[in-house]
Amino acid sequence: MAWEDLSKERIEQIIRQIDGKKMIKGKILISPAMIKGRGDIFLWAPVKKTVIKVSRGTSVYVASYDMDERDRILVYDGFNLFAIHPDELEEIGFN
Fold it and tell me: Which of 9, 21, 50, 80 has the highest local Cβ count within 10 Å?
């Protein structure tokens, strides 16, 4: 599998950013991205081993830039980890 060695520290940092908890000194903030377009998109959730419906325009954080066999990366939206093609994402940065 593509995401067998997923970074626990990166996931913890994303959760801290979403929750607004105190950040660890020396850690760089992870820039959020947004799913392009309008409407819904169905994406593979490898942890749940099912397809989930996600609204386009949802803010996500890249959990792993490692690509699977279908050229998808792993992102986290605060509720689910799911696979998406990088062309479907737009880096929005910090507002």
Answer: 80
Tokens of 69: 């066999």
Distance CA 46, CA 79 (A): 13
Give 18-72 pLDDT, tens digit per residue: 777 777 777 778 889 999 999 999 999 988 899 999 999 999 999 888 888 999 9
In which domain, by residue range, is 71 found?
8-91
Residue with tokens 């947004």: 34
Number of domains in the chain: 1
